[in-house]
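Page 47, continued from p. 46.
Same chain as before, 462 aa.
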Amino acid sequence: MIVLFLVGYACIALEHNLKINKAASALLLSSLLWTIYIFYAQSYLPTVDEFVKFSAGGHDIAQSVIHYVTEKQIIEHVGDVAEIIFFLLGAMTIVELIDVHGGFSIITDKITSKNKKKLLWILSIITFFMSAILDNLTTTIVMVMLLRKLIAIQKERWLFACAIILAANSGGAFSPIGDVTTIMLWVKGNVTTQALIPSILGPSIISAFLPILLISFSLKGNLEAVTNEHKSSHNTLHASEIITPFEQKFIFFLGVGCLIFVPIFKSITHLPPFLGVLLGLGALWIYTEMMYGNKKNVPESSKARISVVLGRIDFTTILFFLGILMAVAALQCAGILQDLAIFLDEKLNNIYLINILIGVLSSIVDNVPLVAGAMGMYEIAPIGCAEAMVPYMQDGTFWLFLTYCAGVGGSILIIGSAAGVVVMGLEKVDFVWYLKHISFYALLGYLAGALFFIFQESFILG
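Result:
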């Protein structure tokens, strides 16, 4: 299983070289791992206390193993993964709905500065806080599209786009809905909003704006005027042209309000966050249906109803999450991740070093399976546990630091985050160029933020 996982992981990491979508590799990997596991479980599970309790009184061990794997382990893990997937699906649909109706122009149209340094800081600050609300991937797409309207020279645009990567990844790390890995930890209950924001906001600010400050020293003067051929309109449907300015603003503020409401919904009801997102999506859906119902003279093809917007959702990403999370779940059920946790504790014996290592690794390989692996390696410790397990309690130091490291560490290389890959695709930023001009600054920011977190936990919050 370990060898197969490493081979599958390599296929995911080398997606562009192999020209095989990583979702296909992840789905195949998860199916094969579970297939191998159900045969391996015949010899492994009888030594596990939880299985012994489950099968107590049963005479046929082979049948008990099959029932335990198919009716307990798979069902539990599918439920955990479904919570994350439904949340992402709902949030992505809301953001896409705002986008197709031109809602983001409410922000982007206000940015008119031509001074390079001033514009860099304006864009970076907006990106930082916008990614905390929308998510770092969507924010990066919106801001890169804006860059094409503002900056004509490609190499200058690359510098601004890289600053957006840094700001988006750091901004997404301190918010429960800002990054996929943070969403995973929040949905599972490893961290809560009340602890996450005050603990990670400071390190996130440092990790974003220290490298951006260093980048700003290389910028001088004003931008050239952008001619029409350099302008690139935002990739929306015709919907933004057939609705009124009031309707456009209402969709924007209702959509963003629904996303901001999700953590509040969870803290009040204690229900899973995906129900809060679906509540918001349902409200937006009803509003847009009523809005289009009153537009009798508008062709149906120009209306961006939810049924149309769903066609714009990146379902390959959703399937990738399903595949990789279920693959990691198979390793967890087989006891492999627990063995890895013991190995790391014995060799490093330091939760800060373990997380910093995970962050650096996330710049090379996808951070989703890394975080999923860490969640499988270490259980959430109960209240009143032994002192050594306190960092693994809900909102414990280990989980909070993991959200920072996994979210920010991906900025070190352009391939290390979804935001970086998007910029690479949209602006054709060269891997080596990023390595030469940005990676060192990103590493400095990452380590500085990590040191601030350690200082904060040891002397301020501790």
